[in-house]
Design a protein that fits this description.
- The chain is of the alpha+beta class.
- Helices cover about 40% and strands about 10% of the residues.
- It contains 24 helices and 17 strands.
- The chain has a five-stranded mixed β-sheet, with helices on both faces. A three-stranded antiparallel β-sheet has the order 2-1-5.
- A hairpin with an 8-residue loop joins strand 11 and strand 12.
- Helix 14 packs antiparallel against helix 18 and helix 15 packs antiparallel against helix 16.
- This is THAP-type domain-containing protein.
Length: about 700
C-alpha cells in the first residue's frame, strides 16, 4: 500500500514548497495558523494533519543560509513563527536555484559518465543510514567542469545541473525497524515531503527520511547520558574529513584523543574552510563518554580491569584506571551514598509509623576463613523482605572477626532507635554475643529454624555411620519435618519443648506423652505394616538420638525457634552481593560500602518478582541436587527475570544532572562516614631498599 501524500493545506497554494511544517499544538499560535490556512473561515471539523509549506513564511527560518548553500535538506522554523504570505511571487527554492544557475554554466550532458562518488560509513554504508532526498527537475552533482572564471569557491555556492542523470540500479538496503508513520508525523513539526512531479520518487526512501528526522529530533532533546552510542572505526571517521565540503579539495586533518573521546580538526588550504568535530559532548573539561563508562562499570558491579582487557583485545580506546578512580571518588560514590541515604530515610520513616516491626539480622564476611577484613551486618524488614540498613565493620575496629557481628548489630539497632522504629522481635542466628547483647537490651529474640535443623542433621548423619545405628537413617526425614512443625505450630516456649521431646516417644511407637503441654500426637492412630522400623529403648541408635535431642543448650534454644519469619532472604541477598563485591577482589572501605549499597538497591527493587510460567500458564520449577544433600534433590521456584533497573536510571540522572554540576554538597555526605585506617596503618613501614636486600640475601 503506497504511503500517504502530504500537501500544503493553505487555500489557493498552487506551487507548494517541499519543506512542510506541521500545525503547532500550543495556543494561541495554533489558532493564528488555522485562521491563515482557512482565511478566517475554519470548518467545524479540522483535518487530522494540517501542513503549511515554507513559501508562506518570511524571515522565519533558522537555517535559511545553510539550506541555500546546500548543507541542509529542509528549512527549520523559528519558535513562534506565523505564516503571513498568501500568494508568494517566487518560491524560495526556485529563487535560490535560479540564482545559482546564473552564476555558473555547465556543459554536461546526459551521455556523460557517472560522476565518481565515494560512500563513507562507520561500519555500514552511509547510504544505508543517511536520509534520502531528491529535488524535482534539478539534481546536484559533485564533480563537474566549470568554465566560469569569475567564480570563487569560497562563496559557498552549490553547483546545479539541469541535466537528468539516469539512476543506477538500487542495491539492497538494510531494513531498519521503524515506527508508525502517523505517530512519527505527529511528533515532527517540520518535514520534507516529496513532490508528485518526481517520477523517480521512492516511497521507502521517504519513509526512512521521515523516521530518521523524527528520531534525530528526539535524540537531540534527550539528556547526554541517554543518547544512543555506537562503536566507530577510526578510518571511517577520517574519511569524512579528507575532502573539503566546499571546494572538494584535499584537507589537512589532525586528531586528539582523551580516553574514548576524539576531536578532529579539518583545514582546507585552498578555500580556508575549517571546522572542529568532537565524538562526544564535553561537560566542563570531562568528555561525557568517559564519565558514562566509569559510571556504568561501577553501578553494574563490573570490573574495570576486565573491561580494560576486553578493550585492549579489540583495540578499543579506553582511559586509564586512575581516571576511573577519579570519576568514582568525585561523582559516582557521592551519588551512591546520597541515593542510599535518601531511600533509607524514606523507609525508616514508614517503619516508624508501624506499631510493631519484625526484623532479621545476619553478618557476611568478605572472605572465608579467619583472615577477614570486612564484615557487613544487614538488617532486613522480614514482613516485606527489604534491606533496611547495612553496617560495614573493619576487623581492626573491634579486634577481630568474632566481635564484628555484635558491633554491626549494635550500630543498626542504634540507628533504628534514633529514627523511632519500635521492634516487636528480631530473628538472628545463635551467636553467643548476640544472645547476651539482646538479653541485656530486653529485646525479644528468635532463632532461625534452618540453622538449628542443619546442625542437628549433621550430628545425626554422623551417628548413622556408626555400628548398630544404621536404622536411624530411616528417621532423618521425619525428624527434619518435626523440627519445622514444632516451630510453626507452637505459641509458647514450653509448648515447643514438649513437642520437640515427643519425637523420642514417636520413634518407639508411643504416641501419648507425659507433658501436659502436648499430651498426645495429633496424627491418626494406625497400625504400621513395618514393625522393624521402630527404635527400641536401650539400643545404641536410640541412646545417641536421645543424647542429641535432649542436649541442654538445644532445649534452651528450642524455646526461641521463630514461629513466623526466617532468615532465608539473607542468603538471597548475600548472593546478590557477590555480583557487586566478589570475595576474590579487594576493595577499599568506601568502595566496599558503596557496592553494598548498590546490592541493596538492586535487591530491594527486584525482591517482589513473581514465579515464572510457561506459555500455557503453568508455573515453572527447577530441580537441584545440592552437594550437602548427597543425592537428594530439592525443588525451587523459577522467578521471572529482573525487568526494571530504575535505581540505575536514577543514579545516572543524579550523577550527570546534579553531582557533576555541584559535587561539593554531595561530597559532604561522604565525609560524614567514619572511615577506619587501613590494616597496615598500625605497623611501621620499613625502607623498601632494605627489604629488597634482605630478601636477596635469604634467597
Amino acid at each position: 500500500m503506497p504511503p500517504k501524500r502530504f500537501r500544503c493545506s493553505v487555500a489557493g497554494c498552487m506551487n507548494p514548497h517541499s519543506s512542510l511544517h506541521l500545525l503547532p499544538k500550543s495556543e494561541p499560535l495554533k489558532t493564528r495558523w488555522i485562521n491563515f490556512v482557512f482565511k478566517e473561515n475554519a470548518p467545524s471539523t479540522l483535518p487530522k494533519f494540517i501542513y503549511v509549506c515554507a513559501n508562506h513564511f518570511t524571515d522565519c527560518f533558522v537555517n535559511e543560509g545553510q539550506y541555500k548553500a546546500g548543507f541542509a535538506q529542509k528549512l527549520l522554523l523559528k519558535d513562534g513563527a506565523v505564516p503571513t504570505v498568501r500568494d508568494p511571487a517566487t518560491p524560495p527554492e526556485d529563487a535560490s536555484t535560479s540564482e545559482q544557475s546564473s552564476q555558473t554554466r555547465d556543459i554536461a550532458c546526459q551521455t556523460d559518465e557517472k560522476p565518481l562518488t565515494k560512500s563513507v560509513g562507520t561500519q555500514l554504508s552511509v547510504k544505508t543510514l543517511h536520509a534520502h532526498y531528491r529535488r524535482t527537475g534539478v539534481q546536484s552533482t559533485d564533480n563537474f567542469l566549470d568554465i566560469d572564471s569569475s567564480f570563487s569557491p569560497a562563496a559557498g555556492v552549490t553547483f546545479m545541473s539541469s541535466a537528468h542523470i539516469k539512476r543506477p540500479p538500487k542495491r539492497p538496503r538494510v531494513e531498519l525497524e521503524e515506527e508508525d508513520d502517523e505517530k512519527t508525523l505527529m511528533d515532527t513539526s517540520s518535514i520534507v515531503a516529496p513532490e508528485e512531479q518526481d517520477s523517480t520518487f521512492d516511497p521507502a526512501e521517504t519513509d526512512t527520511t521521515l523516521t530518521e528526522t523524527a528520531d534525530m529530533s528526539a535524540q537531540a532533546s534527550c539528556p547526554i547520558h541517554k543518547i544512543r552510542k555506537y562503536i566507530v572505526y577510526e578510518n571511517c571517521i577520517m574519511e569524512l574529513f579528507e575532502v573539503c565540503p566546499v571546494c572538494k579539495q584535499s584537507c589537512s586533518v589532525r586528531s586528539q584523543r582523551i580516553g574514548t573521546f576524539v576531536r578532529v580538526e579539518q583545514l582546507c588550504h585552498n578555500c580556508k574552510y575549517s571546522r572542529k568535530w568532537s565524538s562526544q559532548p564535553v561537560q566542563g573539561s570531562t568528555p561525557a563518554g568517559n564519565l558514562h563508562i566509569s559510571a556504568a562499570v561501577y553501578l553494574c558491579g563490573a570490573s574495570f580491569y576486565k573491561l580494560e582487557k576486553i578493550c585492549t583485545t579489540m583495540n578499543l580506546q579506553l582511559f586509564k584506571y586512575d581516571t576511573f578512580r577519579r570519576h568514582s571518588r568525585l561523582y559516582i560514590e557521592p551519588a551512591i551514598v546520597y541515593k542510599w541515604m535518601h531511600w533509607q530515610n524514606e523507609t525508616l520513616h514508614r517503619l516508624s509509623e508501624r506499631d510493631r516491626v519484625i526484623v532479621g539480622g545476619d553478618m557476611r564476611a568478605d572472605s572465608p576463613g579467619h583472615s577477614v577484613k570486612f564484615g557487613s551486618y544487614t538488617v532486613m524488614d522480614l514482613q516485606t523482605n527489604t534491606v533496611v540498613d547495612i553496617q560495614l565493620v573493619q576487623s581492626n575496629e573491634v579486634g577481630g572477626r568474632y566481635h564484628m557481628e555484635k558491633e554491626g548489630l549494635q550500630r543498626s539497632l542504634a540507628l533504628l532507635e534514633a529514627r523511632g522504629v519500635t521492634l516487636e522481635c528480631i530473628v538472628t542466628d545463635r551467636h553467643p554475643q548476640i544472645q547476651k547483647f539482646l538479653r541485656e537490651r530486653n529485646i525479644k529474640q528468635f532463632y532461625d529454624v534452618w540453622r538449628i535443623e542443619k546442625g542437628i542433621t549433621r550430628q545425626l548423619e554422623n551417628i548413622c555411620k556408626l555400628k548398630d545405628c544404621e536404622k536411624l537413617r530411616e528417621w532423618l526425614g521425619s525428624i527434619k519435618n518435626h523440627i519445622y512443625w514444632t516451630a510453626a505450630s507452637s505459641i509458647t516456649g514450653p509448648e515447643r519443648v514438649a513437642k520437640w521431646s515427643s519425637i523420642l516417644n514417636h520413634v518407639r511407637d508411643i504416641h501419648t506423652h507425659e507433658d501436659p503441654n502436648f499430651p498426645a500426637c495429633l496424627h491418626p492412630q494406625k497400625r504400621s505394616r513395618d514393625g522393624n522400623k521402630w527404635l527400641v529403648a536401650g539400643t545404641q541408635a536410640f541412646y545417641k538420638l536421645e543424647k542429641v535431642m535432649t542436649n541442654k543448650r538445644i532445649l534452651k534454644d528450642v524455646t526461641k525457634l521463630s514461629p513466623h519469619h526466617q532468615t532465608s532472604p539473607f542468603d538471597s541477598f548475600h548472593s546478590v552481593i557477590l555480583r557487586f563485591a566478589p570475595k576474590n577482589v579487594v576493595f577499599p572501605f568506601l568502595g566496599m560500602l558503596c557496592r553494598l549499597y548498590l546490592a541493596a538497591l538492586h535487591y530491594n527493587e527486584n525482591v517482589g518478582r513473581a514465579q515464572a510460567t510457561t506459555s500455557t500458564g503453568r508455573p515453572l520449577f527447577k530441580v537441584n541436587f545440592p552437594k550437602g544433600r548427597k543425592g537428594q534433590c530439592t525443588v525451587k521456584q523459577v522467578k521471572t527475570r529482573p525487568l526494571t533497573f530504575r535505581y540505575l536510571d536514577d543514579l545516572q540522572d543524579l550523577i550527570f544532572e546534579h553531582v557533576f554540576v555541584d559535587p561539593a554538597s554531595y561530597m559532604d555526605e561522604v565525609l560524614k562516614i567514619p572511615i577506619p585506617p587501613d590494616l597496615c596503618a598500625e605497623y611501621e613501614r620499613p625502607d623498601k631498599e632494605e627489604v629488597i636486600m634482605v630478601s636477596r640475601l635469604n634467597q
